[in-house]
Write a structure and sequence with these properties.
Length: 273
């Protein structure tokens, strides 16, 4: 076979195998949590040690980033519910409500959590950063009712919440610029609450300055970050499976690159001879 003219369909078959087999088989590569991911985990552990802990989780992503963001959402919800941390979920992204409800329902059923007592979903609010400013002043004014139409003051998990500082931690799941342009300037800097976040892999480098300034207390970046969090939780999930497929596929691509280069230099040597 002429290695310099491999039919691209052969490469496609190898890539397909590299994706499919790791998703079907249960094995794992070594995973080591990075410092930003470890810090998010430590923040949730800190919250769990406090009295009547409650966190606010903001869903700010849509269908196009589900492969990266949904495993991350499931991982932090599992951590919260496994440590009896109450969760209040909101959406500042119009595509997010269905995804948020799906994640909440799935993890709540896994841990036997009840709506209203252990968690609440308040739905979507337009206005970008405006709801953040409003929540910092009067949470019940910002979200008078939940997604089911119940008054927030009548829901046990939210009845005592007056503003953002009543949450032990605020966590934003971001596929856009909500962390650096909404939550930090209009929330963290104004009201000084504890704040962590998760984002797509391509966004993560832009957020490192906020980690260094302590405006962001830890960060989960992309599918790899979600897999690291699952490792810390010792509960392998879809992120771990996704990283298996991604890692094997990368190895296959590197192998083809090395093979192509070896064939190229071999052919050059033959021509020179």
């Amino acid at each position: 076979m002429d290695l310099l003219n491999i039919d691209r369909r052969i490469i496609f078959v190898f890539v397909f195998i590299g994706v499919a087999i790791p998703l079907m088989l249960d094995f794992s590569f070594p995973i080591k949590a990075t410092e930003p991911v470890q810090r998010v985990f430590d923040e949730f552990e800190r919250v769990a040690a406090e009295e009547e802990p409650v966190v606010l989780v903001s869903f700010s992503y849509g269908a196009s980033t589900v492969p990266e963001m949904q495993p991350m959402a499931l991982a932090i919800l599992r951590h919260a519910f496994s440590r009896d941390i109450k969760v209040v979920a909101i959406c500042l992204w119009p595509e997010a409500p269905g995804l948020a409800q799906q994640a909440l329902a799935q993890v709540a059923s896994e841990y036997g959590k009840e709506y209203g007592t252990d968690y609440a979903f308040l739905g979507y609010k337009p206005g970008l950063w405006a709801p953040i400013i409003n929540m910092g002043q009067d949470f019940h004014d910002a979200w008078p009712r939940d997604a089911r139409g119940t008054l927030v003051g009548d829901i046990p998990v939210t009845s005592a919440i007056r503003d953002l500082n009543d949450f032990n931690l605020v966590f934003d799941l971001a596929a856009g610029d909500s962390i650096e342009f909404w939550w930090i300037p209009f929330g963290v800097e104004k009201y000084k609450f504890a704040f962590s976040g998760g984002c797509t892999a391509v966004m993560a480098p832009d957020l490192y300055p906020f980690l260094q300034s302590d405006q962001l207390r830890g960060m989960i970046g992309g599918l790899a970050g979600a897999a690291e969090y699952e490792h810390l939780m010792e509960i392998p999930g879809s992120a771990t499976a996704g990283m298996r497929a991604q890692s094997v596929t990368h190895l296959i691509i590197v192998a083809f690159i090395l093979l192509g280069n070896a064939a190229y230099f071999a052919s050059r040597r033959k021509v020179t001879a």
